[in-house]
Design a protein that fits this description.
- The protein contains 10 helices and 12 strands.
- It has 3 domains: about 100 residues, 4-hydroxy-3-methylbut-2-enyl diphosphate reductase, catalytic domain (Cobalt-precorrin-4 Transmethylase, domain 1); about 90 residues, Rossmann fold (3-Layer(aba) Sandwich); about 90 residues, 4-hydroxy-3-methylbut-2-enyl diphosphate reductase, catalytic domain (Cobalt-precorrin-4 Transmethylase, domain 1, 3-Layer(aba) Sandwich), CATH 3.40.1010.
Length: about 325
Amino acid sequence: MQVILAQPRGFCAGVERAIEIVERALEKYGPPVYVRHEIVLNRHVVESLRAKGARFVEEIDEVPPGGITIFSAHGVARAVEQGAEERNLPVIDATCPLVSKVHSEGQRYAAQGKDVILIGHAGHPEVEGTMGRIPGPIHLISSVEDVAALAVRDPQELAYVTQTTLSVDDTRAIIDALKARFPAIVGPDTKDICYATQNRQRAVRDLAARVDVLLVVGARNSSNSNRLREIGAELGVPSYLIEDARALDMAWLEGARAVGITAGASAPDELVQELIEALRQHGPVELSVQPGADENVRFRMPAELSEPAEAGAARA
């Protein structure tokens, strides 16, 4: 069987930074540290960090007094931040800098007196965080159909921002519909959608032309992983989203000469390697990596963790 790996795939710089923040915090302060929501949307990553001493909580009031508190890569609403401030919790913010950029854009538009339209998926932690950081009227839409139902204060004073992990093509279609209905609307170009999202989607499009089946390693609740599977399916390739090798159904691969593998931005590469090993249990595998974008982006650590300190150092 020919197995072709997408390039790039798996962890992006924002996810790597968020995981490293938790690991450095455990090193510096000693366990436990408290992480609000999953640091990234991947069960394997969460379980690995939990084994090292991270404790995952749903709400800030679950953190004991003085507990080192980490906000996830998806960002949090201002109300969550205020709750931590009121309790004097020492906070380390692992919000992806590209998500923070969306927050800043939305806040700038709101300060100009505009209604802000957020293109994203209801219930996604990034969307909840973004909506909770933009003051004033904000409208959430997720499809071209939603545009027709929008009720805004002033069609001349409108702006849009987007969730970072969406399909670039879907987002472009929604933006086109917004511009058609509201010609005065302003907002960032689709190229402002996360570089990692765009690179992984482009790689899947290229890969789909070469394979008979596409396997996407990622969590069910991972927006960017779901988009990768959807892109493969839209291009006519049977595409499956699996959490790990245990979810592989060999019946999917019957008659397939070439199998493509990619991974969502929060899926560790070890899961891809385990999937390749699972395929090898069923016969010889000819492995290759598809040429693609070379990502060398690195985001700075928060100031609190920029210098290593002894484990168990005094808590702020």
